[in-house]
Structures are given as structure tokens and as C-alpha cells.
Amino acid sequence: MADTRKKNKKIIKYRRPINIGVVFFGFIAVYLIVCVYMFFTSTHISGYEVIAGNLATDYHYTGIALRTEQIFQSEKPGYVSYYAREGEKVSVNSAVYTVDESGKMARAVKESAQGLTLSEEDYGQLRGEIMTYMSNLSDMNFSEVYDFKIAMDASVLDLMNQNMIAELDSAAETEGAIFTRYNAGTTGVVEYYIDGFEGAGLDSLSSAWFDQEAYVRTNLRTEELVGQGEPVYKLVTEELWKLVFPLDADMETYLLDKLKENQTTKEDGTVIQNTTYIEIRMDKDKEILWPSVTVEYREGNAYGVLEFVNSMIRYANDRFLTFEILRDETTGLKIPKSAVTEKEFFVIDKNYVTNSGADSNMGFMKQTVGEDGSTEAKFVNSTIYYQDDQYAYVDPREENFSTSEKLLNSGDLLLRTDSAEVYQVGQMEKLKGVYNINKGYTIFRQIQILYENEEYCIVKEGTSYGLSVYDHIVLNADTVNEDEVIYD
Q: Would you give the DSSP letter of residue 439?
């Protein structure tokens, strides 16, 4: 009985079963931590799809317009009112402005102007100017907003002045004011600003001209009293005008070459410079023009001089004009510069390139040594990545697929099939290229760069072992090595 109680008092510990759910979620947590760690510590490889495109070289310049301009002064003191619209061509018999000596007429016109309204045609003109400005608006040139405001103020004032012409005569009759009407001094395009360049010519050309921060433009239209002999307007009297701009070394060479191409040499050796034209596009209105061009030198600096025989009235209100010289655009395959890398190749005299004969595979005849010490010629089917006028470029890492031996090594001797000459392998040069990833691993593809800017290159299409449209390449070549497997 006692023994039985003793047995019953024995306690057996119960083992809890393993919680599979906790273990499973623990593995998931560890896996996520590892993935996050690898994501933040590993190098990320981005791809880029090759596209056909072009890069237009940016040949933008700012020039100073030189015209035949004549300033006219007020013949008597008084308050000036203008008849002619700025930028309008006037004749000798056209009224340009009036001078009111007493100021009565100016006050009467100002009061009557309160009730003046613009016609639908006037609003149409203003809308056209606004649309032109909006089409050329750029966030990079915000200062043009102020130029646009000044131009719009001038346009509205011109339209109001045109509408007030009839008010001048009625104001004179009502107020008994005495005013004098003045016609244009000659035929030309009327402008109401002066800036000191009215008499400038190529003989006084200086680099100081192009300091736009020092440029001062004075608006002649004012409501203040104008003294006798003070400037009130100017006329651009000739259609012929010039645009002068500083040249950089590249554009200087380009223009000099263009001028040289257009020279004629007479039998006596005299060189005649024929008129040379270039194509430009004005930034202001995107107009395409064909001015003649010459090159001038002042104080060691080179300047381009464009001469126009038309379009003067279109730009008469501008002293500084920005334009683009249109040269040939480079077309081909467009790739980012970050994708470009370099690789070393054996360079071998192209005279040693031969074919196998049977299947016409290209390669080289390599001199080999047999077990008995005898020499023989063995054809090596090497891949020629690129060939110029002197050398063939061969990958030093290329191997025989069946034996994994390198096809060529530094020090190997190559034989010519048409002579007893030999060439020792060893000289190396670099080729530019990219890493192609169409097959899931990086393969070097050589490229020939036609043109490049700060971000992109245009490379030649259709080269041997090169690129094609829609190929996929590594965006940042410095993040990978050749033959590296790429995981998506």
C-alpha cells in the first residue's frame, strides 16, 4: 500500500511540442532582414535600351545688331505725344510726334484717354504678341518676363496713341492749346529708344560691347516735359544690317573653313573671296535666315559678322539678339555616357589576318612547337572585334571552347601567308565599348563614337561586334565586370 502511494507521487515533466508557426515566421523574418541588408549593401545594376537618335550641337550665340540709325531731337520744349507706332515704317510726309508747349492739350488728351477703348483688331494684335512670347517661353531665361512686360506696355501705348490721334485736334479746338506736329525727318523705321550704339560700326568693335550688365537702354517716351534739343525718336534708315558676335575656337575654325571653301584663285594667283552664307535660327521667333558671314579680329579676339539684306524691321527693337548657327546634326545610336567603358585588346598588323580556306573563317596562322621540337603553322580562328587601316583588334581573353585554352598569348608568333615575316603578339590598345546584357550576362561590345555631349553619345550603327537598336546595355558600366551574370 505504501509502495503504491510512493509510485503515484512520481512526477513526469511534460515536454511542450515545437510551435511550427513560430519557427516558420522566424525563418521569414531572418530572410527579410538578409534581403534588406543585401539590398542596401549591394550594387544596383540598371539597364538601358539602345535607341536611334541624334544630338544637335548647341551653337547658340548672342550678337549685337548694328544698323544705320539716326536720332532726331525735339525742336522746341514741351510735352510730346506720338503718332507713329514703334516699329512702323514711316515716310517723310508721315507725322511722328507733336509738341504741346503749354501742356493744356496733354492734360486734355490724358483726360479723354480715360474713355478710350481698344478695338477687337487691337486686342487681336496683343493676343498674337502674347502667343508668340508663350511659345518661346523658357524657365532658363526668366529675365525675358521683364522684357515682355516692357514690350507689352509699349504695344498698348502705341495702340492708345493711334486711337488718340483724333482726340488731338478736338482737344486743340476745345482748349485753345497750341501744339506743333512734326513729320519724319526721312524714310525709315521709327523706334523710341536710344542706347549709344546708334553710330557704332566695325571700326570701333570692342569686347566691352558684349557686357550686357553695363548696357543702358533709355526709353524716349515719357510724360515729363521734354527740353529743346533732347532726343524724341530715331529712325532706322537702311534695310542692310549686321549682327556681330564673339567666336569660340571651334566656331572660328568652322567659319574660316567655310570661307576658304568659297575662295576662287585666278590664273595670276590672286585669291578672290566669294560671298559665303550660313544658316541661322533666331531664338526670338524661330525664323530661319541665311546671312553672309565674315570674320573680324580685334585686340586678339575673333568675331563673326553676319550681314543681312532683309528682316531689319522684324528685329529693329532689339540690340542684343540670340541665335543658333545650324550645322549638321549627328545621327546614330544614342546611349548615355555612363554606359561607356574601355577594354584592352591585342593589336595585330592587319597584314597577318587570313582565312581558314574551307569555311572562310577569319583568323591568324600561329607558329606552334611540337613535342619533337619541330615548328608548324596552326590556324587560329580569332574574333576580330575591330579593324582600322593598320591593326586588327583581338580579345586577349578569348579561349578555345573545347580546351579552355587561350587562343593567343603575349609572345606568340604569327606568320604571314604571303611572306616569311613574323609578328609577335603583345602590343595592346584600348577600345571604347559598352556591356551588352541581352543574354543575361555582360558582353563587351565595341562602339565608335560620332559625337558626344555632357550626357549622351551618338555611336555608329552597323559596326562589327557593335550595337543595334533595341539592344539592352548596362547603364553604369563601372558597376559590373565582363561576363558577369545579371539578375533581374
A: T
Q: What is the C-alpha end-to-end distance of the chain, expressed in Å?
A: 77
pLDDT over threshold 60, residue 5: no
pLDDT of residue 14: 58
pLDDT at residue 352, as a whole number? 92
In this structure, is residue 461 part of a structural domain?
yes
pLDDT at 61 over 70: yes
Q: The pTM is what?
A: 0.55
Residue 132 lies in a domain: no
Shared domain for 245 and 97, answered yes or no, is yes
In a domain, 369, yes or no: yes
Cell of 394: 583581338
Domains of the chain: total: 3
The CATH code of the domain that includes 222 is: 2.40.50.100
E-state strands within 68-192: 69-73, 79-82, 89-90, 95-100, 179-183, 188-191
Q: Which residue's C-alpha cell is 537702354?
A: 217
Show the domain range for 36.
2-41
| Together in a domain, 229 and 376 | no
> Within this chain, do residues 367 and 317 fall inside the same structural domain, yes or no?
no
196 Ramachandran zone, left/alpha/beta (phi>0; psi -120 to 50): left
Instruction: Give the Å distances, CA to CA, from 391 to 347, 350, 367.
Output: 6, 5, 20
What is the distance between the alpha carbons of residues 423 and 415, in angstroms, rounded to a whole number? 7
Residue 442 lies in a domain: yes
Fill in the amino acid letter for 131.
Answer: M
Q: Looking at the structure, do residues 388 and 262 belong to the same domain, yes or no?
A: no
| Per-residue buried b or exposed e for 425-448, using 16+ beta carbons within 10 Å of the residue's own CB | beeeeebebbbbbeeeebbbbbbe
Q: How many residues does the chain have?
A: 488
Domain shared by 238 and 367, yes or no: no
**Chain centre distance of CA 344:** 33
Evaluate whether 83 touches 166 at the Cβ level (below 8 Å): no
Beta bridge partners of 458: 334, 451
Environment class of 259 (CB within 10 Å of its CB; exposed 0-12, middle 13-18, buried 19+) = middle
- For the stretch 201-257, pLDDT in tens is 999 999 999 999 999 999 998 878 888 899 999 999 999 999 999 999 989 999 999
18 & 88 share domain: no
Any idea which residue has 503515484 for its cell? 8
